[in-house]
Amino acid sequence: MTLNNFLILSAFLFCTGLYGTLARRNAVLVLMSIELMLNAVNLNLVAFSAFRENVTGQVFSLFIITIAAAEVGVGLAIVLLIYRNSRSVDLDQADQLKG
Amino acid sequence: MLDNAWIIPAIPAVSFFLILFFGKRIPTKGAAIGITALGASFVLSCVAVYQWIDRVESATGGKSSGLAAFGRSLVTHGGETKPVVEPVLHHVTWWSNAGIDFGVGIRMDGLAVMMLFVVTLISLLVHIYSTAYLHNDIRYTHYYAMLSLFSAAMLTLVVADNTLQLMLGWEGVGLCSFALIGHWWEEGANSKAALKAFFTTRTGDIGLLIGVTVLFWAARSFDIGRINAYALSPRADHSMMLVAASCLMLAIIGKSGQFPLHTWLPDAMAGPTPVSALIHAATMVVAGVYLGARLYPVFWNGFSIGNGGVNFMVLIGGITIIIGALLAFVQDDIKKVLAYSTISQLGYMVMALGAGAWVAAVFHLFTHAFFKALLFLGAGSVSHSGSHHSFDMKKDMGGLRKFMPITFWTFIVGTLALAGIFPFAGFWSKDEILVTAGNSGYDFFLIVGLVGAFLTAAYMTRCVYLTFFGEYRGHGHPHESEPVITVPLIILAVFAVLAGFLNAAAFHIEKFASWVEPRVAFPELVHPAFDYPKAAISLSIAAIGIGVAAFFFFKREKLGKLNGLTERNKVAHAGYMFLVNKYYLDALYENVIVASIRGGIARGSYWFNQHVIDGVVNGTGKGTKAVGQWTYEFLDRKVVDGAVNGTAEVTAESGGLLRYFQAGRVQRYALYMFAAVGLLALLLLIANI
Amino acid sequence: MDWFDSWALTLAVFIPLVGMAIVLLIPKAEEGLIKVVTLLTTLVTAAVGIGILANFNLDSGRLQFTANEEWIKVINSRYHVGIDGISLPLILLTMLVTVCCVIYSWNHFPEPHNPKAFLALVLLLETGMIGTFVAQDLILFFIFFELVLLPMFFMIGVWGGPNREYASIKFFLFTMFGSAFMLLSFLAMYFLSKVHTFDIVILSHLHGAGIVHGTQLLVFGGMFLGFAIKVPMFPFHTWLPDAHTEAPTVGSVLLAAVMLKLGTYGFIRIALPMLPSAAQSWAPWIGLLAVIGIIYGALCCLAQRDMKRLIAFSSVAHMGFVMLGIATLTDFGINAAVFGMVAHGLITGMLFFLAGSVQERYGTREISRLGGILTQAPKLGWLLGFSAMASLGLPGLAGFWGEFPAILSTYEPKLPFGLWDGSAGTLATYRTFMVISAIGTVLAAGYLLWMFQRVAMGTPKPEFENAHIHDLHTEEWIAFAPLLLLIVALGIYPQLLFKMTDLPVTQLVNGMTRALGLG
């Protein structure tokens, strides 16, 4: 198992997450995709940390996990409120801030 | 008194103030103060005369002095030697400037004491006369105050030792003349006459102002003695003297009613008759002649009088004689006849001065004062008691000799004196003028003088006839006037008879000349002896004049065709109208000159002021406002504000453009973000490779 | 009396200001108290003036009662005050006329009433006027010179006639326009002189040293503009008739009696000694404008229908004589000018008072509607006649001595009395001026007596025939009396004034002569 394998996997996961964030209409799916991106980054960081004998990456990934958790909590709360107000979680319809 | 002669003008000045402030409250309403003051001045003047004569006689070598010498001097011959008799001078600093002191003072010599005598006497008589004439007048006190002020001013002028003081007196009498002519100013005509008088004399006063200035710079002094000495000295600048003499001549023309500024005198008759007697016959109008006599060396030099030949002075005098006399013929108002007569006689005096006949001129001034004042006061008496306050001879007089004998006879005396009939005063003085003129080479003017004598005799006869002969045409109850009026008439008549003898050349009496003619700073004048042929000629011409006029009036029916000539014959009528309209001079002065100055020129200046000058000012204001308007509307609002607004516009527009990026969809934003990151990463990658 | 020597002028200038402050504190309703306070203030100021007169040394031509303190250090301007025989009569005139004005308006304030504001402005005006005459520092002079504009502006603008807004603004802006150039000239004097100072005494002694002739001409021109507008000289005079006609009586009196003198005084005090060679070049032109003013003013007078406007134009004519006297640059001429200033102040002040009295009684100043004042109010008519005679320059009254020495000097403006070397052209020019100004005296007689004849003589017009016209009341008599007495006294004994002015004027002319290298 080389580093590249992990990096490719991380990239693959990241791209999948990116696709989900940008192209999906369901807000929950977007949040899940963001989680996916964050975890991909985590994987990346841990892989580098393992293969480079440097603990910084793992520490950094702990931070990311915490922040991801907080962010998902807030994000889901917002999605819940959006659902309560407009009975839908379709992001294409949430364009009231249009200029 | 010669040393303290300043008291003589001071007394009437004090009485002026007293009458002004207290006159209304005292019983005689101020007349008593005036009469007392003038009486005192007269007495003091007599003392001065006596002292001066004494001075002259003792200088001439008279053995005793005092009254005896005075008496003897009246009968002895005038001395052939002419010792220098200095005038008495006193001087007080009045103001100083640039280190030069100017003063007031007195210059007492024969001329001055003579004038003092004349002025105070006639003023006193007029004061007394006026108590009856102006009885119950609306402005009695004011009148007496002005009479006092006038006397003070005239006396100041007479004793003046410098031209500045003379000017003070000169203008002062002008002011009083204004006030007294316009005494009954409720009538517009009277106030207009007063204005006309002041105005015309003021025009002449330009000459006085400039003349005094020129003389000051020439002689570096205002002192009359010094000026005269300078004028006769070899270093005198002749052209300057000519300028000065011409300017002073202008002043004389104005004040002494010479042609062409004579037009104010007849109109001045609007004032009360005593005023006319005092001011416009005897005293103020002769101020010009007095000026000429006082500053004679200036004229002598300036007009080259000693060289014979026509000069400005003699010419004006001659013209005045004739035009005054001619106009006297067509007057219906007795005072106007006398006024024109005064103009004519003043012409004699000026002509005499211009011809080098100084003594004759001054002597004529002396005698004329008496008989002219007499005639005026006589006219006043006629109006007061005879013609019911009218002066129109044709309408309201006639045949008054039966009712007013004293007035009649004194008037006759005055007329004969004026006409120059022997032995009345006028004969001697007028004769002397004619003789001197003839002898000095002014033959033309001798003839003018003779013609004038003829006319004088004629128009006075007309006047006497219309007033005192024929049938009474008036509406009143004529009677003789009260003594307060007739006594002055008698006194003046006595003088009119006797005054001439002071210089009766025929009897070799030349007292007047020896007493009055200056010996200091005075040119050598020619004194011709009495000329019997010329005297006879002038006498006969005067007699012819009386005769012709008398014939015309008394024997009217025998005239036949000559009667009513001026009405039928066009040429005669035109001539008559020319005279009645006073040669259209008044029309020229009033309707052309004054009216254009007051009307067109003044209005033109004011229009210029309001529309041109103020137009510039207002235009500047409007222009500035317009510039301000333009600055605001265009520069500020359009350009500056435009820039400001433009900036805002651009900002807004660009904002409008940028809003298209604001889709409101989160994912779109995320896309932008990732695209940018991707781009940057790519760049970084490329850059680092 | 040393403290008096240094404090007298400061007191004279600022006591009115203090009085004004007190008046402002008094409530508006206490009219009696306001009037008394104002009168007391002016009387105290006049008392200071009399003290100055009593202690004045007539034999010294130098500045007296001087005070010289540091003031505005940054621009090198000091508080320097002092008077000599030229300023003294003007100060006394100011004090006297102000007292007369206060007495005159005692019971007769123009509409709208408000004596508090009115009298406060009068006091402020007095400060400005006296200050100008005593200032010996250019900046100080300028401040006081401008200070007088404000109260007069308000007096005309608030208490004036129907056209007051136009008149007050015109007056203010016109005068200020000239003052702007004057200030430029003052600054030029500071920067260009050999010694950089604003001090009038020092600059006068320098006589323009250090300034090239061409520049001197320009600097003089700036001063000329500022002063000439104030005098007022033709053709800068058009603000005067409007200001005088619309101003209330007291305003007109103060304007005519004193404020016009600020301009001529400026010429004598500042322009002439500081720039003698420029003065000599400018003088014939000033003389020309002066004689034009004499004739032009008289002609415009003849066309007037309003009494006050007529008197206003007569001021133009009179100040023409004053300026002619100054333009001769001679002893006689400048003496005549100062005398003329005082005489004009007294006489024209008197005339304006009388015009105000006439208006108060008849409600109009239109000559065509008036008539027969001598019948209805004889004393008023008599005073009108007296003032008219004084104004036309009758010898024996003050006006004559303002005109005659001026005419005398124009004939021969030569050494040793003046600066000229007697070149033919100059003499001819000035002698022409003399003749023209002599003609001006006739015109003066014309318009004044014509007005007098129409207004005072004759019978009253039907409109006022039965009107109850009361003659002069006590306040008017008290206000007029000092003016009348002085007019007669100065006329009969002009030495009273000439004694004061002769020495400083002689020194001025001598200084200028020396500076020009003549005589």
Q: Provide mean pLDDT of chain C, rounded.
A: 89
Taken from the alpha-carbon principal axes, the silhouette of chain C is: globular
CATH topology of chain A: Helix Hairpins
Note the run of SSEs of chain A as H and E: HHH
Question: Roughly how much helix do the residues of chain A carry, as a percent range?
Answer: over 70%
Judged by helices, strands and strand pairing, the structural class of chain A is mainly alpha
CATH C-level label of chain A: Mainly Alpha
Residue share in β-strands of chain A = under 5%
| Average pLDDT reading of chain A | 92
Measured by DSSP, the beta-strand proportion of chain C falls in under 5%
The interface involving the most residues is between: B-C, 51 and 58 residues
- Based on CA atoms alone, the radius of gyration of chain C comes out at 22 Å
**Reported CATH architecture of chain A:** Orthogonal Bundle
User: Gap between N and C termini of chain A, in Å?
Assistant: 51 Å
Assign a percent range to the helix content of chain C.
over 70%
What is the β-strand count of chain C?
A: 2
Q: Which of globular, elongated, flat, extended, rod-shaped describes the shape of chain A?
A: elongated
How many structural domains can be distinguished in the coordinates of chain A? Answer: 1
> What is the makeup of the main sheet of chain C?
2 strands, antiparallel
